[in-house]
Amino acid sequence: MFNDIYNFVWGLNKKTVFLILDINFFLTLLLLQNVHVGTFTWLHSRFKI
What is the distance between the alpha carbons of residues 45 and 23, in angstroms, rounded to a whole number? Predict the structure, then answer.
């Protein structure tokens, strides 16, 4: 009985952890993309590339 509950909760936790990792990965990618675009824009305005 306890084992079933434990497995259920652990399964949920694993899903939640992976979901959080996915979201963090996605946000990090977005952030990196923004930084990349920002850097490019800054270089462009600074050095007229």
Answer: 33
- Residue 16 inside a domain? The answer is yes
Q: Residue 21 to residues 6, 16, 18, 26, 36: CA-CA distances in angstroms?
A: 22, 9, 5, 8, 22
Convert the pLDDT of each residue in 24-33 to its tens digit. Answer: 999 999 999 9
Domain total for the chain? 1
**Do residues 36 and 30 make contact, with C-beta atoms less than 8 angstroms apart?**
no
Residues in the chain: 49
Task: State the residue range of the domain holding 25.
Answer: 7-41
